[in-house]
Write a structure and sequence with these properties.
Number of strands: 5
CATH superfamily of one domain: Ribonuclease H-like superfamily/Ribonuclease H
Strand content: 5-15%
Oligomer: single chain
Structural class: alpha/beta
Order of helices and strands: HEEEHHHHEHHEHHHH
Length: about 230
C-alpha cells in the first residue's frame, strides 16, 4: 500500500517539477538551473490548505507565506489567499477537510472567494520576487514536501522560484522526539487551527524552540586559544 502511494507521489512530483521549471523559463530569460543558484540564508515559509491529500484529485484552497532571515527574523508576510473551488473539487474534498474547514470557517470563505488559482499564483509570485531571488531560498514548514507537491502541480511558476532544498521542521521534530525527549516535551503547544498563516507562525515558533534548546551555539574560541602553538 505504502509503496504504491510513493509511486503515485513520484509519478506526480517529478513531471510537475520539470514542467514548472520549463514554464518559468518560457516566460523570461533565466540563468540555467544547475545547482539552484547561489544559496541565500533566507527561508520561504509556506503552508497550503488543500481539499485532501491526493494531488491528482484534490486542490489548494488556501495559501500563505512568510519570509524570514536564516536566524528566523521576520522579513515579510503574505496574508492568506483563499481560492474558489469548482463543484468537482468540492465534491472531491475529503470528509476530514469538510469537517475541519466547516469548524474553522474556511469552507464559508471558499464559497465566498472570487480568486482562482492563476490569480493566486500571480500574487504569490509577485510577493516572492519582491523579497527573494529565484532558485536561492529553501522552502520551510512542517511536512512542507506536501505543499511543494501541490504547488508544483497547480502553481508551476511559484514552484520554479523555490530552491530545491527544504527545511522541514517535522523532520527535526521527529529527531528531537527520539534523541531529546525532555526537550520534546517542552515544544510550544499548537492550536491546530488548520489555517495557513497560523500554521506557518506556529512552525516558526517551533523551530525557534529547537534553535534555542537544541542548536546551541558553540562558544567562540578566545584569541589565546586561536594562537598557533610552537
Amino acid at each position: 500500500m505504502l509503496s504504491r502511494w510513493l509511486q503515485r507521489i513520484s509519478a506526480v512530483l517529478i513531471p510537475a517539477m520539470s514542467k514548472s521549471i520549463m514554464a518559468a523559463a518560457s516566460t523570461k530569460p533565466m540563468a540555467p538551473v544547475t545547482h539552484g543558484g547561489p544559496l541565500s540564508t533566507r527561508l520561504i515559509w509556506v503552508d497550503c490548505e488543500m481539499t485532501g491529500l491526493d494531488p491528482e484529485i484534490n486542490r489548494i484552497c488556501e495559501i500563505a507565506l512568510v519570509i524570514t532571515e536564516g536566524d528566523l527574523t521576520p522579513v515579510a508576510q503574505f496574508d492568506p489567499i483563499i481560492i474558489k473551488q469548482t463543484p468537482e473539487s468540492m465534491q472531491n474534498m475529503s470528509k476530514w477537510c469538510k469537517k475541519t474547514f466547516k469548524k474553522n470557517g474556511l469552507l464559508t470563505r471558499i464559497a465566498e472567494s472570487n480568486i482562482d488559482t492563476q490569480n493566486a499564483e500571480e500574487q504569490v509570485l509577485k510577493f516572492l520576487q519582491e523579497h527573494t531571488e529565484p532558485f536561492t531560498c529553501a522552502l520551510a514548514g512542517n511536512s512542507v514536501y506536501m505543499d511543494r507537491l501541490f504547488i508544483a502541480r497547480e502553481m508551476p511558476l511559484v514552484a520554479a522560484h523555490f530552491h530545491y532544498r527544504t527545511v522541514d521542521v517535522s523532520t527535526i521534530k521527529e529527531l528531537v522526539r527520539r534523541w531529546y525527549p525532555a526537550k520534546f516535551a517542552a515544544i510550544p503547544e499548537k492550536k491546530m487551527c488548520h489555517r495557513s498563516i497560523d500554521d506557518i507562525l506556529e512552525s516558526i515558533e517551533e523551530l525557534k524552540h529547537y534553535q534555542k534548546e537544541i542548536f546551541i551555539p558553540l562558544p567562540e574560541a578566545s584569541s589565546a586559544d586561536s594562537k598557533p602553538t610552537a
